[in-house]
């Protein structure tokens, strides 16, 4: 998620299994020596590792909750706790020297106490030598040392390291969770609802929501939908004069097709009585009217034709030709 620090409450909401396991281990004072947090980008792995560090170092912890105000909590918040170390790729990989430097740090007695925690970001990017170096470290764990490895590609971690870690899987965030977070950042509902369905990466959703192009793309998609519904003769002209200048590269064209597909999916949602699942809530009146004018089969066929067009987009079809064929298909029925 986009926040630098998560709270245990947010973790409970978005990653309940991870929260339960870590909080129980903290309460029983039975933290593993090594964890592997694995899952897609933007699911809160790094924030959770800092949250764990906060509870681990907190001077006034109650149960598993850090106080947030002691010296240790504050230093973790500001990123300068002497016994918390973060290793990230130097260029494209994590090198042996970085792991050795970490081991040297850890061979000294803890600056504050004997507690030490280290976080290795993109652990899958360790070179073979770095991984072997870390393995030795994991094989002889110090009593009060915790390792947290983070990865989006856990199948690329060598099995000898995997077997020494407790693996916690982070699930993709549901759209509602992303929408709630975007709301906290004052993103308007019509934009946040769409961004939350486009990606389940919180950072990416936030970036998209703040991008003027995304708001413009949404407006063009709605306009195309209205042209297809009520001014069919103008659809081809619209593609040339208004669509292609906005959706210029393949990624943008693919996104445009997704945004259009969601409108027809909303029509289908209205038809089957799931109005609460409608993404374009501001189009509700038009969607209801349109839902009455076509059958569910027809709505489903339109969705399929947009999905097919998106597949063809990636096989190097001329985008103008592709869109022209698509609008002719969508106009039928």
Low-confidence stretches: none
Strand content bin:
5-15%
Structural classification:
alpha/beta
CATH fold title of the largest domain: Rossmann fold
Provide the CATH superfamily of the largest domain.
P-loop containing nucleotide triphosphate hydrolases
Strand arrangement, major sheet: 2-3-4-1-5
Q: From the 3D coordinates, which CATH architecture of the largest domain would you assign? A: 3-Layer(aba) Sandwich
CATH secondary-structure class of the largest domain: Alpha Beta
- Helical region count? 16
Give Rg in angstroms: 25 Å
DSSP strand tally:
5
- Which H/E pattern describes the elements? HHEHHEHEHEHEHHHHHHHHH
Globally, the shape reads elongated
Mean pLDDT: 90
Could you give the distance between the termini?
43 Å
Account of the 3D structure:
The protein is an alpha/beta fold and 333 residues long. It has two domains: 8-172, Rossmann fold (3-Layer(aba) Sandwich), CATH 3.40.50; 211-331, Zinc Finger, Delta Prime, domain 3 (Up-down Bundle), CATH 1.20.272.10. The chain has 16 helices and five strands. The chain has helices at residues 8-14, 16-27, 45-57, 71-78, 96-107, 128-139, 159-162, 175-184, 189-198, 202-209, 212-230, 235-243, 250-271, 284-293, 296-313, 319-331; strands at 34-38, 84-87, 116-120, 145-151, 166-169. The protein has a five-stranded parallel sheet with strand order 2-3-4-1-5, with helices on both faces. β2, α5 (96-107) and β3 form a beta-alpha-beta unit. α13 runs antiparallel to α15 (296-313). The longest helix is centred in the C-terminal third of the chain and has 22 residues, at 250-271. The protein is elongated, with a radius of gyration of 25 Å.
